[in-house]
Amino acid sequence: MDYIKDVLFGSPVPDKLTGQHTDTFCYLSIKDRHPVTITKIIDQVFKMGLADESVREDTKAVAAKLSRIKTRLQTNKELEPLEGEGGDVKQWNTALESLPDKTWFGAPWLFVECYMYRYIHCVLQDTSHFQYPHFDVFRDEKQKGLVSSLSNMSKIWSSLSDVTMVTRDVIATCIKLSLWGNKTDLSLLEHFNLSVNDVQSGTAVDQNDGRILSNDLEKVVDCVMNLENGHVGIVLDNSGYELFSDLCLVDALLRSGRVTMVTLHQKSIPWFVSDVTQCDFDSTLSDLFGYDELKGFSERLSSYKSSSKLVTTEHPFWTSPSPFCEMRSVAPDLHDQLLKCDLVLFKGDLNYRKLVNDRTWSYDTKFGTALEGFSPTKVCALRTVKSDSIVGCDKERVEKILSEDRDSMFCGSYALISTNF
User: Fold this and answer.
1) Of 279 and 21, which is predicted with more confidence?
2) What span, in angstroms and rounded, lies between the C-alpha atoms of 68 and 76?
3) How far apart are the first and last CA of the chain?
4) Tell me, what's the pLDDT at 280?
5) Whether the predicted pLDDT of 1 surpasses 50
6) Phi, psi of 273 (to 5 degrees)
7) What is the DSSP string of 372-417?
């Protein structure tokens, strides 16, 4: 209703963010961050070619193609149609053709950034040795992040595992753990200092509440506590510590007596470096099992899986060029899956950007309005802020933060818990 009232019968929707907005994090990402991502992949496959002669020809081909796209990015050339196999290639190329400005800095940033990762996947799939799932170009980074977090994970789990009754305060705490897990800054864990008493009283992460710019936490907890045989969906973001924090929330939901099924939505291909794939999920459970203090947690999660209380699934829509407001028409089967959930949690920055179509919304725009009609069920975004799109907030406060310490708004120091209900 907000969308119909405020957009269809009010002001037209704002433009989508592009690299032409030179005062934005979007511009800096295209200019600085994206070339670095491409360079790291070139370096990685080049080193593999030096170490193994059998992959050398593939290495040369990958390096040449990625070097070319990096140059086109830096000189603001037009994005080129994708090549290769994949049921979504036609969809990508149709979407690309529809853009009035196809240049790297002129096309919508959401499209450009997703295109870059989809292009990388095309290049790697067009080889003999670098095809997914046999090879994941980001696997080493994800594995290092997981291993470096195991000690902190064990401390948190030792507190959560001793909780005998999952109350609303425990649910609230686990939601905030999942929220701040999206920060992917391991130094933040020092501030959690979890104990059983903290978890039961809901104060474990309260010191960060002042940094939640839009806080619908109580609405989400009320929703969960009012469920009977509830089904919750979680659209995942990062692997490593964030996935662990999401799984802590899964455990709390399933032990609450209110939720009987949780569905985790993963990516079908390596995406945005650290996004969760099925391979990442499986390796995470394996690594947790191999760490003495987390073995019990892994066994519990495996039990949930075997009894179908915990379901993992993937869909090509999550790595498509479409914002979520197009899901009903582009991926009606996925839309129907979400319809069956009582609540769907969307984790992280990219999911948030796709929820609000990465437009230059005013900071005080209602979250429901920015969804542009996407409302298959009760929706909640759990996101630490790492890019420009922000809605549902006190406009003056956001502007004040940007004027005093702009960088802090793009490194996960602030967060949003936003709902459409």
Assistant:
1) 279
2) 12
3) 11
4) 97
5) no
6) 70, -60
7) TT--SS-EEEEEE--SS---SS-HHHHHHHHHH-GGGGGTTSSEEE
